[in-house]
Model the fold of this input.
Amino acid sequence: MRYIRPVTSPLDADWSTRHSVLTTARRTAALVNALGGGPSGTGTSIAPAPQAVAEVLRAYGETGPVDLTPRDVDGMRAAADLLREVFAADSADAAAHVLNRLLGAHTGALRLTSHGGSTPWHPHLDRDDDAPWPEWFLASSCMALAVLLWDHQRPPGRVCASGACPDVFISRGSGPERRYCSRRCATRERVAAHRRRG
Ligand SMILES: [Zn+2]
Done:
């Protein structure tokens, strides 16, 4: 008989949060930004080194070996371009249509996995636990963005409103909608608007 493992170590304290929908969605935004591409699509920027992409994965809780090849990174860049369309959608309806298109064309059936007991049970849309990185990235991102849209009935993310910044971000949160990806972009745009008025 198997028992639920008691929470004993500090690592276990974030057992759930490390794998939460919001963490997954934020990881999607961070990966889309790290993988580059931008509004005009692939081929316009240089692919990041596999180590740089692996660092983003580790920052969002990946604990296993991250054996990314340049080919995996190319596939992930293609997935990032597709996901960028979800962030570019300006209404819940538009974002849902993009997500439905991606779910129909690029993901498998809904299943649950605990990766052999090493994580909490969570849903996956890729074909199996050993799916290639690009397939895993697109499927896990579609899942998290779809759940956020379901939960908030709003687009799950946005593209930074600064014309000088191609970054995407998760727009969840209470209070007024954020327009910029970061404080840095918000400040730069405020200063620019002030100069234009002056
Ligand atoms: Zn920005």
Observations:
- The longest strand covers residues 111-113.
